[in-house]
Amino acid sequence: MLGAKVSIKYTKLFINNEFVDSVSGKKFASINPVDETVVAEVAEARMADIDKAVAAAKKAFARGSEWRSLQPAQRSALLNKLADLVERHVQEIASIMTLENGKPFAHAVGETQMAADTFRYYAGWCDKIQGQTIPTDDGSLVMTRKEPVGVAGQITPWNFPVLLYAIKLGPALAAGCPVVLKPAEQTPLCNLYLAALTKEAGFPPGVVNVVPGFGPTAGAALAEHPDVAKISFTGSVEVGKLIMKASGNSNLKRVTLELGGKSPLVIFDDVNVDKAAKIAHEAIFANSGQVCIAASRTYVHSKIYNEFVEKSRELALKRKVGDPFDAATEQGPQVEKDIFDRVVTYIEIGKKEGASLVTGGERIGNKGYFIQPTIFANVTDDMTIAKDEIFGPVQSILKFDTLEEVIERANKTTYGLAAGVLTNDITKAVKFAQAIESGSVWVNHYAATTLQAPFGGYKQSGIGRELGPEALDNYLETKTISIKL
Ligand code: ADP
Ligand code: MG
Question: Is the pTM higher than 0.90?
Answer without folding.
Answer: yes
